[in-house]
Amino acid sequence: MTLNPDWYNLAVRFIRHQQELQGRIMQSHDIRMPVTPVTPLAERRASYQAELNKCAKTTGEVEMEPRVVELETHLEYIRRDMEEVRGDVRSIKHRLAYSAGGTAVVLGLLGWIANSRFDQLVALLAR
What is the pLDDT of residue 105? Predict the structure, then answer.
């Protein structure tokens, strides 16, 4: 039993088309990781303190304890970081979905090839 060249060419064209579509879709998503420089702890602490002092010196507001202001500042940073993490998780979900689709296509093709060549495989194993 021989593999029909038309089927082979069709399968190759299908795989190339899927890869091209996957490449276009992956390019449409912003998959580049944002580069965030890591600042030293002393510098970060100084910037926090400057923000605390700026927040605490506003007129017309009730003076809050510095600890409360610091906690609010940390909460803002945590919220911003959580939004970045959510974006990264969405990106990873899309990548996994496309990878699973590609894997299903490849496994389907391998199964089809194995099914069409089953008698040859049995003959090879019987030797």
Answer: 94
60 dihedral zone (left: phi>0; alpha: psi -120 to 50; beta): left
Tokens (6 digits) for 2? 């021989």
Q: Which of 65, 45, 46 is nearest to 55 (CA)?
A: 65
**Res. 114 pLDDT band, cuts 50 70 90:** confident
pTM for the model stands at: 0.37
What pLDDT, on the 0 to 100 scale, is given for residue 1? Answer: 47
The secondary structure of the chain, three-state, reads: CCCCHHHHHHHHHHHHHHHHHHHHHHHHCCCCCCCCCCCCHHHHHHHHHHHHHHHHCCCCCCCCCHHHHHHHHHHHHHHHHHHHHHHHHHHHHHHHHHHHHHHHHHHHHHHHHHHHCHHHHHHHHHC
